[in-house]
Design a protein that fits this description.
The complex is a heterodimer of chains A (570) and B (200). Chain A has 570 residues and is α/β, with parallel strands linked by helices. Chain A is built from 13 helices and 23 strands. In chain A, a hairpin with a 5-residue loop joins strand 18 and strand 19. The longest helix of chain A has 21 residues. By secondary structure, chain B is mostly helical. Chain B has a two-stranded antiparallel sheet. The longest helix of chain B has 22 residues. Chain B starts with a helix and ends in a 9-residue tail after the last strand. Classes of the chains: A alpha/beta (570), B mainly alpha (200).
């Protein structure tokens, strides 16, 4: 019996545990297994195997029951996830439905989740812009949050490292606030995007339209072929999962890579209830898992633990990991755990028409679009609000049909039609300032199906966001007008935080254990063998899409973890 | 029971299973069993005949050839909320009354020209009633019909879903236009003249 027990413990003991298999968890799994560590990857949802488990990926519109539209029952049952742009008849199976995992909105928060192997890496918008020191130095310069414990020079080699493997298409644009990286050929801008870029260059300082750098294989290198991926085929159906592996996802890239090492054990249907802390050893020894099929609680053990459950769920897990040593949540000596949650402000958009360049158009589809790096308050504070916004900017045109009438003339009109004028559209991506009052906490009574307390979310916009939004509308109205665009139509929406799917913070990095949870290597200050490298670690948000930074931070932390293990320091 | 009988009986069972979700028209053809709304065979015939008037058989297939009536019914049944469906049903009754009043016949008994006149009449009066356009442009999501009279809701929905079903049908997307699912390219600065668009 004793032997059996020892065998059982042995079977549940690994060198490393990675909690979560999304964009950052996949990287942790790849890096740790690549260094020879026997690694258990825990995923709360089901397994999704590359290609095999993309049931809609090759379907034509007429092969969907509702030709792509969602039934009203689905929409009514899912007011939250139903608001996500990528949630459709072709992709709904990759999203958590509202009823499946409830949470409490002290303030409206659209929490968009993907509970499966690969997480939201199957669904992301694939924009991958680097941060610069104008971002890392932001909190210190402008006096908010706490100083980032790292600078661009610390992360730059890791950006290069992950870019080479993931495959990032882009151009070397030479813009100080958006450093260049290791790029595959960039996708071109179309005529009107180039025209607007030229207009900005001529008339404004420091405003550029560039091709948005994106995680697509415009021209695969050997390392991508080794992953079994091929060139992006410009289908623009990414949310279904890509049978070509044309864009980076954990499923197409890091997870199968980790699997091939022979060092990974992937365990889906495993909700991590808490991290186990051993007071005598002064470190974490493992995790407590609830098997969602059997409802059994099982403990797994390892020397190091990577927490990559996705920003909000990482907060939930840390808050729920209570012990004598950490009565208020794991590593929460400072009391800031769950606080200083921030996001990106996507609540303004502007559209217009352009009557020039009628003889030109595009052929095929682009997996990216134009991107305007932050131009407000970059080199110094110059407006009435803190920080700034990046913007998407795209131009497009389409065939216009007459839809009136009936019969043979209508049939003909549905086929025939002139190409319409160019339309342009832009949306803002604003930095929000982390605040103590924007926080998540555990409900004292209500629990989910696995016995984990429900999370209460209290996150809101502030006055700075309103000012920034107003500035975006003003600046773009002016730039569009001077560029000769017409029918300029600014629109402000009132989308709740969360719908940007860029929620960050709660377990922020910092230099001082009294005001932060993680150190410069993403180790929990008070428990050095636990690493948090997903969005929860973010001290501030800047305005770039964050996934690339999570990847780089994760690879960097994994490298440090392996070195510390070798030295016997963790 | 010999082997042949087993196979014959099995075929009956399987055949029965296929027919179960549908019911039979008076003429023996199947109609669609709906989940949320009740439409009898006459009402379903009416919708099919409206769809066929919108997208008729010409030298290319029409609505009925492409099974669009069943698609329209499925969309009304699944993709419209209760309020919209109630209004749809009320509009359907109004539609019938309007036709009877004018022609003293049901829509299904009208000649094609008369059918077209009825539909165009509703379309034109809708346009003069309202600033907005009853016909969908690029989006085929069910329209918010809160401020629309029932007749417009009914006809608008049938029309919208017929056109949506048609333009997303296999026939249309492979024979009438070329839906390029896997372009494998993105070329900018491309002359419009090279697009091979069918223009008016």
């Amino acid at each position: 019996m004793a032997n059996l027990n020892i065998d059982s413990i042995k079977a549940r003991t690994f060198d490393a545990i990675v909690i979560g298999s999304g964009i950052s968890g996949g990287w942790a799994a790849k890096e740790l297994t690549g260094h020879g560590l026997k690694t258990l990857v825990l995923e709360r949802g089901r397994d999704v195997k590359h290609i095999k488990d993309y049931p809609t990926t090759n379907k034509y519109p007429w092969e969907f029951e509702h030709h792509g539209q969602l039934p009203v029952a689905v929409r009514e049952e899912n007011p939250i996830v139903g608001r996500c742009y990528a949630f459709g008849e072709d992709s709904q199976h990759f999203f958590v439905k509202d009823k499946e995992h409830p949470y409490i909105q002290d303030k409206p928060f659209d929490w968009i989740r993907g509970y499966q192997v690969g997480g939201k890496s199957l669904l992301w918008a694939r924009q991958t812009q680097r941060w610069s020191d104008f971002d890392f130095e932001g909190p210190a310069r402008d006096g908010f949050a706490v100083d980032w414990p790292i600078r661009y020079k610390d992360i730059a080699p890791w950006y290069s490292y992950v870019e080479k493997f993931a495959g990032i298409a882009g151009n070397k644009d030479g813009i100080p606030q958006l450093p260049d990286g290791e790029f595959l050929p960039g996708y071109p801008l179309n005529d009107v995007e180039v025209y607007f870029g030229d207009h900005l260059k001529k008339n404004y300082k420091n405003r550029f339209v560039i091709s948005g750098r994106c995680a697509h294989l415009s021209k695969p290198n050997d390392i991508h072929v080794q992953q079994g991926r091929t060139q992006c085929q410009n289908r623009d159906l990414c949310q279904r999962g890509c049978p070509f592996g044309g864009y980076f996802s954990s499923n197409a890239s890091t997870i199968p890579w980790a699997e091939r090492s022979g060092n990974m054990t992937l365990r889906p249907f495993s909700v991590v209830e808490s991290i186990i802390y051993d007071e005598k050893l002064g470190k974490a020894t493992g995790v407590r898992v609830v098997d969602t099929n059997t409802r059994e609680t099982i403990e797994y053990y390892a020397k190091i633990i990577f927490v990559n459950a996705a920003a909000i769920n990482t907060n939930l897990l840390l808050l729920n990991s209570k012990s004598n040593r950490f009565p208020d949540g794991f590593g929460n000596d400072s009391g800031v755990l769950g606080k200083y949650i921030a996001f990106h402000n996507y609540s303004a958009h502007i559209g217009a028409q352009f009557d020039g360049m009628k003889e030109w158009t595009v052929d095929g589809r682009s997996p990216t679009g134009g991107y305007i790096p932050r131009f407000r308050n970059v080199f110094k504070q110059e407006t009435g609000f803190l920080r700034g916004y990046a913007c998407g900017f795209s131009a497009y045109r389409f065939q216009q049909h007459k839809y009136d009438g009936v019969g043979s003339s209508l049939k003909e009109n549905l086929v025939k039609g002139e190409l319409g004028p160019w339309y342009v559209g832009s949306h803002m991506m604003g930095e929000t300032i982390p605040k103590e009052s924007n926080h998540v906490s555990l409900d004292s009574k209500l629990k989910d199906d696995w016995g984990v307390p429900l999370l209460k979310i209290s996150v809101d916009y502030d006055d700075n966001d309103e000012k920034m939004k107003k500035d975006y509308i003003e600046q773009f109205t002016e730039m569009f007008t001077s560029a000769g665009f017409t029918n300029i139509n600014p629109s402000v929406n009132h989308q709740a935080p969360g719908l940007d799917i860029h929620e960050m913070g709660g377990a922020r990095m910092g230099r001082d254990p009294k005001t932060s949870i993680l150190n410069e290597w993403n180790q929990v200050h008070a428990c050095k063998n636990v690493f948090v490298t997903d969005g929860a670690c973010m001290t501030s948000t800047s305005c770039q899409n964050p996934s690339l930074t999570y990847m780089a931070i994760t690879a960097r932390a994994a490298d440090h973890a392996v070195n510390e293990l070798k030295k016997g320091n963790v | 029971m010999d082997r042949r009988t087993v196979i014959r009986n099995l075929a009956l069972v399987v055949g029965g299973a296929v027919l179960l979700p549908s019911c039979l028209h008076k003429d023996g053809s199947a109609y669609v069993q709906l989940k949320h709304i009740i439409l009898n065979s006459d009402q379903q015939d009416l919708i099919a005949n409206i769809a066929e008037t919108i997208i008729p058989k010409t030298n290319t297939p029409g609505a009925k050839d492409l099974n669009l009536p069943a698609f329209v019914l499925k969309m009304i049944d699944d993709c419209y909320d209760k309020k919209g469906q109630d209004k749809f049903i009320a509009g359907l009754a109004e539609f019938n009354n309007l036709v009877i009043k004018k022609y003293n016949k049901s829509f299904s008994d009208l000649e094609t020209k008369e059918r077209e006149a009825v539909l165009l009449g509703i379309e034109n009066s809708h346009k003069t009633n309202k600033k907005g356009n009853s016909t969908p442009a690029r989006s085929f999501r069910p329209q918010k019909s809160a401020d629309m009279p029932p007749l417009d809701t009914f006809y608008g929905a049938v029309r919208q879903q017929t056109i949506f079903g048609y333009t997303t049908s296999q026939f249309f997307m492979t024979k009438e236009i070329f839906y390029d699912m896997v372009p494998g390219r993105y070329i900018v600065h491309y002359p419009v003249s090279k697009l091979k668009l069918k223009t008016a």
